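Field log, afternoon session.

UNIT: design team B
ACTIVITY: writing a sequence onto a fixed backbone
BACKBONE:
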């Protein structure tokens, strides 16, 4: 409820773009105060959060009783003018640029005035927070801060963005090795610095430019592909996180105002307070609880475009998709519909056929069903394992989604669109001016430093502890979605991919034998997992 208390109705929108949109096109609110301008499911989710609502249309819509990506494909035939997102989660009502943080973290100077500084409270389940190392790092540079100034004069900070994290138009050009695929070359860039660059300086590298040396990029539209690395203290987070971003590059090269489409499970209360929503990049990375830069390094492939149509096309689709997501027509599943799956499926639905890597191991997936029944005695574990092993790795693994997307941007830039490419790919091929790689370090804090994300299930299994008892896992409570908010037109979930092999193994009698043998094994060896 803290955010709702922070919101002062007399405050206007911070004067900063929200991706491709001007701030003047939005008004401040909370979910609870949004009224009928927001669907009930979103009002419930953001009831206590500071959000930006569109002040005028055109507004995003969605088709009822329709599979979400079929809806996107139908809309993409004639998308019309760019709509506004249903909301943008800005989390705090004020933003100051060029702030200076005192080395002890007790004060800041912003808008020409010194003021005492306090931090937005740490979420109890969050394992780490800002400390002395944080303020030593931030004090060396100007910072953009979000929060709210209290009547007492104290500024309660919600997020920090180091302002030297900006696109450098003098950045060196990098030559990718010719003896490796483009996707593997992109992986090499991500892994070229120790711990994936978690403790390295912020860096930009020009991967491709249409006119070498011409860097008049100001005002160009941006489509960004983002992957966050692995966390250093969470064995469920080795895969990282994937997102898309849109916006326009200002003259000073700052990236903080890109609008990120952050998809995350709605069915748990995140230990970091993450909510699935469109969110400015300075919040996405710098929020004291939910910001990704507090947990791991980040890599962005920026496609700089001479026309905004491709970025607007992606943004319009995301605006539509969030409405389906919040109302639960699109269900988040870690094994089959996660942050990478949703983003990649959106790009493919718009006509950019990002290359599929295929499943990790279909034969092993079939054998995993009786093996997991023996080991765990749980059908749910067997089903999920099968689905992980049979999922297209581009949809499953954020790093694979990033590598293939960045590699395909290079293909479109160098070779142009091919016969299999649709509208979005053709527009990218025609409009690309440059592709720039950005590496963003982890902000020092009490948290252990992370590293690059694993790129396939084999790497994941090699990273996690062999003994499950040694695994570091952050327990999170469920978030219950009220049945009263469930729309009557929602389609039932599709049949799970694991259903057929599960039935075949069950009909053969193997599942019962595996369960019985595993039950006896666990009784004889109770100390074994």
């Amino acid at each position: 409820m803290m955010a709702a208390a922070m919101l002062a109705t007399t405050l206007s929108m911070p004067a900063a773009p929200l991706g491709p949109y001007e701030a003047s096109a939005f008004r401040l609110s909370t979910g609870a105060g949004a009224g009928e301008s927001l669907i009930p499911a979103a009002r419930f989710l953001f009831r206590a959060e500071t959000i930006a609502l569109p002040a005028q249309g055109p507004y995003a819509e969605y088709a009822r009783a329709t599979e979400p990506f079929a809806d996107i494909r139908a809309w993409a035939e004639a998308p019309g003018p760019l709509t506004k997102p249903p909301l943008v989660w800005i989390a705090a009502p004020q933003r100051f640029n060029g702030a200076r943080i005192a080395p002890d973290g007790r004060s800041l100077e912003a808008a020409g005035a010194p003021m005492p500084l306090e931090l937005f409270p740490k979420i109890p389940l969050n394992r780490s927070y800002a400390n002395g190392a944080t303020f030593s790092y931030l004090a060396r540079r100007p910072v953009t801060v979000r929060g709210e100034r209290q009547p007492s004069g104290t500024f309660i900070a919600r997020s920090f963005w180091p302002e030297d994290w900006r696109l450098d138009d003098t950045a060196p050009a990098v030559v990718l090795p010719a003896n490796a695929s483009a996707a593997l070359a992109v992986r090499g860039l991500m892994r070229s610095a120790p711990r994936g660059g978690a403790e390295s300086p912020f860096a930009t590298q020009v991967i491709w430019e249409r006119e070498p040396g011409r860097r008049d990029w100001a005002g160009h539209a941006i489509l960004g592909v983002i992957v966050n690395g692995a966390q250093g203290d969470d064995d469920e987070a080795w895969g990282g996180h994937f997102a898309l971003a849109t916006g326009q590059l200002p003259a000073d090269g700052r990236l903080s105002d890109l609008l990120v489409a952050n998809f995350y499970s709605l069915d748990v209360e995140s230990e970091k307070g993450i909510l699935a929503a469109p969110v400015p990049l300075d919040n996405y990375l710098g929020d004291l609880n939910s910001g990704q830069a507090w947990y791991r390094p980040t890599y962005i492939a920026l496609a700089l475009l001479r026309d905004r149509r491709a970025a607007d096309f992606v943004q319009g689709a995301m605006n539509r998709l969030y409405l389906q997501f919040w109302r639960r027509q699109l269900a988040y599943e870690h094994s089959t519909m996660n942050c990478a799956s949703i983003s990649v499926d959106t790009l493919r639905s718009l006509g950019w056929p990002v290359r599929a890597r295929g499943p990790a191991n279909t034969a092993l997936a079939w054998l995993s069903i009786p093996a997991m029944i023996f080991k765990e005695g749980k059908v749910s574990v067997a089903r999920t394992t099968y689905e992980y092993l049979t999922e297209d790795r581009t949809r499953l693994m954020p790093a694979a989604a990033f590598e293939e997307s960045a590699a395909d941007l290079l293909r479109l830039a160098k070779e142009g669109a091919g016969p299999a490419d649709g509208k979005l790919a053709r527009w990218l091929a025609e409009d690309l001016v440059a592709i720039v790689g950005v590496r963003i370090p982890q902000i020092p804090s009490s948290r252990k430093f992370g590293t690059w994300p694993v790129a396939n299930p084999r790497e994941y299994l090699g990273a996690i502890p062999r003994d499950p008892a040694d695994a570091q896992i952050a327990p999170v409570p469920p978030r219950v979605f009220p049945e009263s908010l469930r729309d009557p037109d929602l389609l039932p979930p599709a049949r799970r991919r694991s259903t057929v092999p599960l039935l075949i193994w069950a009909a053969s009698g193997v599942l019962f034998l595996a369960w019985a043998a595993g039950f006896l094994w666990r009784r004889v060896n109770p100390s074994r997992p």
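LOG NOTE: The longest strand covers residues 432-440.
NEXT ACTIVITY: expression trials, pending approval
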